[in-house]
Write a structure and sequence with these properties.
Number of domains: 1
Number of helices: 11
Shape: globular
Largest sheet: none
Mean pLDDT: 82
Strand content: under 5%
Distance between the termini: 30 Å
Number of strands: 0
């Protein structure tokens, strides 16, 4: 019971942190809409000057809806703890977890989901307002019956993205500064996950290659479910793929963390 209470305290820390900076998170979502506004005029010009009403499988209204959803979902699934882990390793704060009976991974998980609780509520509000506003401008239909599946897959997407960046953070054991690695990785992962554009826009060849990586299952896959672009069979298969990647990256992260901890302890912590 005491062990659980320690992790619930970590959850509470994350919750308090997100409450303190809730307006910052809200502003970050609003700020992410500005690139969508720019893309609105760019793609409007593309569709206006094209003889096709459907480009790469998307109508203009469908593409705009995707971009709005991608902006909110990408903000919600984002991690943001990479620099904290790097700081813990670099400045020796990790030593506290060596002498204390607490798992650093579990500490990060509970704190992360404590933050996501408030982020989820804010994201829902922004999503509702955005979709309602767009519905008055563009003509599209949302399959509201898939909302439950969407939220289930979104939770798995958050866990998957957490594991991806937790595993990525282990390079801090071997690199003095990792800001360049993190920034470049975020950019590549955002594109590969469909956070910038639908993967179909990148071309069939590129999309087929990205199917072998876990990134599309953090943003593109959840949105595809909400937009009714995948069958129930594909949804079930996609959920199984999400779980597969979560387990695989978890194992990889534990191996990398174990190797890193040996280096950390041998260096004197």
């Amino acid at each position: 019971m005491k062990k659980i209470n320690k992790y619930l305290y970590s959850f509470k820390i994350g919750l308090q942190n997100s409450l303190e900076y809730r307006f910052d998170f809200f502003l970050s979502i609003v700020a992410s809409m500005f690139p969508v506004v720019v893309q609105f005029f760019v793609w409007q010009a593309v569709y206006t000057n094209s003889s096709e009403t459907v480009i790469n499988g998307y109508t203009f209204s469908g593409l705009m809806l995707y971009l709005v959803l991608a902006s909110v979902v990408s903000k919600f699934v984002s991690s943001g703890f990479e620099y904290e882990i790097a700081s813990d390793i670099k400045n020796g704060y990790l030593s506290r977890f060596i002498i204390m009976p607490i798992s650093y991974l579990n500490y990060r998980i509970f704190r992360f989901f404590g933050q996501k609780l408030i982020h989820f509520i804010i994201s829902l509000i922004v999503l509702f307002v955005s979709v309602t506003t767009l519905h008055g401008i563009l003509s599209f239909d949302l399959v509201y019956g898939r909302l439950f599946i969407f939220f289930l897959v979104l939770i798995l997407a958050v866990i998957l993205n957490f594991m991806i960046f937790y595993a990525l953070s282990t390079v801090s054991f071997w690199l003095i500064e990792i800001w360049g690695v993190i920034i470049s990785s975020r950019l590549v992962i955002n594109i590969a996950s469909g956070g910038l554009l639908p993967l179909a826009v990148l071309g069939k060849h590129t999309e087929s290659i990205l199917n072998f990586f876990p990134f599309k299952y953090t943003i593109f896959f959840p949105i595809s479910i909400l937009l009714d672009e995948v069958s129930i069979r594909q949804v079930i298969f996609g959920i199984l793929i999400q779980i597969f990647w979560i387990i695989l990256i978890f194992i990889l992260a534990r191996i990398m963390w174990g190797l890193g901890m040996k280096k950390y302890i041998s260096a004197g912590g």
